[in-house]
Amino acid sequence: MGNHGRFEGCIGVRQSIIHWFRFASPQSFYPLAGRMIPWFWAAAAISGIAGLWISFFVAPTDAQQGEGYRIIFVHVPASWMSMFIYLVMAFWAGLGLALNTRVSAMMAQALAPTGALMAALSLLTGAFWGKPMWGAWWVWDARLTSELILFFLYLGFMALQAAIDDPRRADKAGAILALVGVVNIPIIYFSVKWWNTLHQGSTINLTKAPSMAQTMLWGMLLMAFAFWMYSIAVALTRVRAIILERERHTEWVKHAVE
Fold first, then answer.
1. CA separation (Å) from 214 to 58, 79, 110, 227?
2. Which of 47, 145, 176, 193 is deepest in the core (most CB within 10 A)?
3. Residue 197: Cβ-neighbour burial (10 angstroms; 0-12, 13-18, 19+)
4. Where are the domains of the chain?
5. How far apart are alpha carbons 48 and 45 in whole angstroms?
């Protein structure tokens, strides 16, 4: 009975893997993405409204930075997402390179513009915060410089794919660039520890208690969740458009757009 149970368990796991692996097909993933998008948009809207309310109207004024500190409720989540999206993009690109799955490469392509937006937002809000705090819009600080490099990596990924007409060759070239660029992520994250920089250290740490008021923490986490939900919703919306563009000659797309 024991061996029989283990055998049935293995069959169940195998069937589950096959069930999920079928979504690697654009034809199967397209309707699934369409069903998920409204939920992510709703989560982004609700958490974003709540996060903005707490961040700008409930959280107390900072004793040292005054009201100007509130820009961190946009700056920090944008910075987090710029790094996280790049890792996810590189994961999908690498998966597509290794397994030759079409949806994986499409997901990487869909994530790049949102990652670039987050990196640009991080740099822009950082400049607005830096001017009153440091007296300058920009300094060649280690974290700022590595974040700028991340922004250029996103732009390079998109430009490289756009420059190659064959989608398969473009996916492979983009995947190599994305994987090489992953080395920049730990540099961004640990830059304030590795070098003497102007940029302040992390206020939220998984191993330590947060060095901010409870309402500030809730505002920060809600805004981060809102940015996360927004990024997923936009990426799924964009990947559906990419699927339609790449699969436009197939019969199922012709039926889907009728």
1. 11, 21, 35, 20
2. 47
3. middle
4. 36-256
5. 5
